[in-house]
Amino acid sequence: MADTIRSALDEPVTMPHLRDEDMSHAAWSAQIAAHVGPDVDTVLGHSFGGSTFLKMLTETDLGIARLVLLAAPDWGPDGWDVADYALLSDTDHRLPPALRIDLHHCTDDDVVPVAHLELLSARMPHAAVVRHRHGGHQFEGGALEDVVRTLR
C-alpha cells in the first residue's frame, strides 16, 4: 500500500514498521511518533495504525494539517470495545481545530466492518466521509487510486 501511494504521489512516504510484540497504545504511539516531524503535513493511516494515530492526536497536537484514515476501527463500547485503544467521548473537541480529517472505508471490508466508519464519523462530525463500494480492507481494485486522487 505504501509503495503504491509513494509512486502515485511521487513524494516521500514513510511508514513505520509496527512491531506486534507490544501492541499497547503507548508502544505503537512511540513507534509512529518517530515518523512525525515538522516537515509532515499529511498523515495517512490504515486500520489499527490509523486509529492509533487518531488517538494520539486527541492527546497532543502533532502539528499536522490533514489526517486521512483508511478502514480505521472504532475501539469504543459500540465498536470493538478495547479501553486501551478507545477514543474518549469528547474526541471531536480534543482534536486540533484546523485539522482536516478524511475517513475512507470500503463497504466490502471483511476485517473492519463498515459500521466502524459510522461510529467514527459520529465522533467527528466535521470529518469528510468517503465510502468505497469495493476494495476490501486493503483498498484493492481502484479504491486506493481513489484515495490518492483525494491526496493530490
Structure notes:
This protein is an alpha/beta fold and 152 residues long. The chain has one domain: Alpha/Beta hydrolase fold, catalytic domain (Rossmann fold, 3-Layer(aba) Sandwich). The chain contains 6 helices and 4 strands. It has a 4-stranded parallel β-sheet. Helix 5 links the parallel strand 3 and strand 4. Helix 1 packs across helix 6. The longest helix is centred in the middle third of the chain and has 13 residues. The mean pLDDT is 94.
Which properties best describe this structure?
alpha/beta; 152 residues; 6 helices; single chain; 14% strand; Rossmann fold; 4-stranded parallel β-sheet; 4 strands
Number of strands: 4
Q: What's the pLDDT, averaged over the residues?
A: 94
Give the low-pLDDT segments. Answer: none
Radius of gyration: 14 Å
What's the architecture in CATH terms?
3-Layer(aba) Sandwich
Instruction: Look up the CATH topology.
Output: Rossmann fold
Note the topology.
Layout: H1 2-9, H2 25-33, E1 42-46, H3 47-59, E2 66-70, H4 91-94, E3 100-106, H5 115-123, E4 128-132, H6 143-151
Parallel strand pairs: 1-2, 2-3, 3-4
Helix pairs in contact: 1-6, 2-3
